[in-house]
Design brief:
By secondary structure, the protein is α+β, with helices and mostly antiparallel strands. It contains twelve helices and eleven strands.
């Protein structure tokens, strides 16, 4: 059948399979000089006419030549090197790179960036939820699927990369916008009773970790923030602590890193009991860190977690996360944290010449 014009914009024809097709010029390849054609399909001529007009209008806002240069995998690399490495915290670089190399590229990395659909992204998320875990020796006993939180994190990475592509006129819309994301079921916090906390601190004292856990309970600092404390951040006269940095493992190295947000830079006040504990700690350690490693540098956050689990095990207590220490829930007679501190002092400490000493 002869080609027909749709208001002078593009060509419309009826195909042998009965459908209508509209073709339009999307641009010209700068290297070969060849015309780049695009098409739309529909059941009726009117439908294709409408689609063709919309496609031509949308095409005006795209750099069609550049869009065809990238696969999804190639664009994720561009986004990571030029955007993510600058915007996100250094401690997140390894995590983001792992998402790209282990999960995104193997599934949708070879798809043309301009052709990635919401359905293809949604299929990726479904696959990750059922069988997305990378096969490693240490993960053999874990579920095969990734957690809902991890899948949502991967969606955030893809969405950010697609938003950058959209701003660069490589795609018209972000394919992650229409995706259904799994609901995160918040893990129930495990807490210790007052008696369990007393047993925990007795074992922590024997293990040389008492001061760290006491200060954690008194301040609610994040693990990295606690390990990043230096004596210069603390005024033992006024009981003020300035939170200026955190310690993190980045690319296999334990280093100082910026805090999570601007609001994370803050000043805390601690009570007289915590000040006394810190004075005890000051007399025991050398160097700038409040809780140094054996070589005087910062302690690895992973090591602190392993030490916590060993202390709990030796005390005959259930395993909890380090994060759970930030939210004490004492189920005995104590109804507030200040009451708990008084309970703890009465249970474990006896005053000796104005200072505290562990009760045996």
């Amino acid at each position: 059948m002869a080609k027909r014009r749709a208001n002078g914009e593009g060509n419309i024809r009826k195909r042998k399979d009965g459908r209508w097709e509209g073709r339009y010029t999307a641009g010209r390849d700068p290297e070969s000089g060849k015309v780049i054609y695009k098409n739309v399909l529909g059941k009726t001529q009117a439908e294709v006419k409408e689609k063709l007009a919309r496609a031509i209008e949308d095409n005006k806002g795209l750099d069609i030549v550049k869009a065809g240069q990238y696969t999804v995998g190639q664009w994720m690399d561009v986004w990571f090197e030029n955007y993510a490495k600058i915007k996100v915290r250094p401690s997140s670089h390894k995590t983001y790179k792992g998402y790209i190399e282990n999960h995104i590229k193997p599934s949708i990395g070879k798809i043309s960036l301009s052709k990635l659909t919401t359905l293809e992204v949604q299929a990726l998320y479904r696959k990750l939820l059922t069988s997305g875990r990378v096969e490693r020796t240490e993960s053999k006993q874990q579920p095969k699927g990734l957690s809902a939180k991890t899948v949502r994190n991967i969606n955030q990475v893809i969405s950010s990369a697609m938003e950058l592509a959209k701003s660069q006129k490589l795609i018209l819309s972000n394919p992650t916008d229409g995706c259904a994301l799994p609901k995160v079921e918040h893990q129930e916090m495990k807490t210790l009773t007052a008696d369990q906390l007393a047993a925990f601190f007795r074992e922590a004292k024997n293990s040389g970790m008492f001061e760290m856990y006491y200060l954690e309970l008194a301040t609610g600092l994040r693990r990295g923030e606690l390990l990043g404390l230096k004596w210069g951040d603390i005024n033992l006269e006024t009981g003020a602590i300035q939170i200026k940095r955190q310690v993190a493992r980045i690319d296999g190295e334990v280093v100082e890193a910026p805090l999570k947000t601007k609001n994370s830079y803050r000043t805390l006040s601690i009570g007289a009991d915590a000040v006394e504990i810190l004075k005890e700690q000051r007399s025991k350690v050398a160097g700038e860190y409040v809780f140094p490693s054996s070589n005087g540098g910062p302690i690895s956050p992973d090591s602190v977690l392993h030490m916590l689990h060993r202390v709990l095990e030796r005390a005959g207590l259930p395993k909890i996360r380090f994060h759970d220490l930030r939210h004490p829930n004492v189920k005995a007679k104590t109804k507030s944290f200040s009451n708990f501190l008084q309970f703890f002092k009465d249970a474990l400490y006896v005053p000796i010449r104005g200072r505290f000493c562990i009760a045996q």
